[in-house]
UniProtKB/TrEMBL annotation:
The keyword Signal applies. This is SUMF1/EgtB/PvdO family nonheme iron enzyme. Pfam families: FGE-sulfatase. The keyword Lyase does not apply. Residues 31-267 form the Sulfatase-modifying factor enzyme-like domain. InterPro entries: CTDL_fold (IPR016187), Sulfatase_Mod_Factor_Kinase (IPR051043), SUMF_dom (IPR005532), SUMF_sf (IPR042095). Keywords: Signal. Coiled coil: none annotated. Residues 1-25 form the signal peptide.
Length: 267
């Protein structure tokens, strides 16, 4: 009995330290993933609530059913991606300008300057994958038809990292992105962070403007081939609300890096 008490006395301080480290862990150190239950929802732009729909017929509203999955609560950070490079699995992304890699002050900013192929490789290193566009949209807006992750209210810097209509206010006046998870009021219905603003996010889907007119009802994965990959969510340079809508899509060349594009993983 005395031996047991001695052992407990020895390990108690260690447990306290571990608990403290866990409580104070930053997003980049956290393995957080959010479980998204399987659901049927109306994907695409709802003309009854969104005036932009008439300008984007390729966002035709249609019903899809998605199996349960998990998605990263936060965008992949520069610190996380740097560790993948240091482990010899990931390629170094583009550097310079507004690119975050190599900037010691950007460890908890979302990684940017990564191609689609580099993003996919990181997710595979983590035993994950890029989300499909349909999964991403479900995680961003749920099943109630909202326009933005937080609801229907127009975006502002209390909810998302963006510019403003008259420009000159990039990243809510910071000139860059902010740390991932810095806008909790903008969380999605499931608690997923930064699904509007900060950086656009790569998904696994190829882009075809007519895909929504004949896509599969169950777990659509996008066209089998294409030239452009779909990014979702808007970025820190977005000036108008329509750029940050949860239904919006931005096709981009998969080999091209951008300071405005990052990613998160799913499984």
């Amino acid at each position: 009995m005395n031996g047991i008490r001695s052992t407990l006395h020895t390990i108690a301080p260690l447990l306290l330290v571990l608990q403290t480290l866990h409580a104070n862990a930053s997003p980049q150190d956290s393995p957080d993933m959010v479980a998204i239950p399987g659901a049927t929802y109306e994907m695409g732009c709802d003309p009854n609530t969104d005036y932009v729909c008439s300008y984007v017929p390729e966002e035709k509203q249609h019903s899809v059913t998605i199996d349960a999955f998990k998605i990263d609560k936060y965008e992949v950070t520069t610190g996380q991606y740097t560790r993948c490079v240091e482990a010899g699995h990931c390629d170094m992304p583009t550097i310079g300008g507004l690119m975050h890699y190599g900037n010691p002050e950007a460890a908890e900013f979302p990684i940017n300057g990564v191609s689609w192929y580099q993003a996919r490789k990181f997710c595979e290193w983590k035993g994950k994958r890029l989300p499909t566009s349909a999964e991403w949209e479900l995680a961003a807006r749920g099943t109630d038809g909202r326009t933005y992750p937080w609801g229907f209210e127009e975006p502002d810097c209390t909810r998302t990292v963006m510019d403003r209509a008259n420009a000159g206010y990039l990243g809510c006046g910071t000139g860059d992105t902010l740390n991932v998870g810095s806008k909790p009021k903008g969380a999605s219905p499931y608690g997923v962070m930064d699904m509007a603003g900060n950086v656009w996010e790569w998904t696994s889907d190829w882009y075809d403007e007519s895909y929504y007119f004949n896509s599969p009802r169950n777990n659509p994965k996008g066209p089998k081939h294409g030239e452009l990959k779909i990014t979702r969510g808007g970025d820190f340079m977005s000036r108008q609300g329509y750029e940050l809508r949860a239904t919006g899509r931005f096709p981009y060349y998969p080999s091209n890096p951008s300071p405005a594009i990052g990613f998160r993983c799913a499984k």
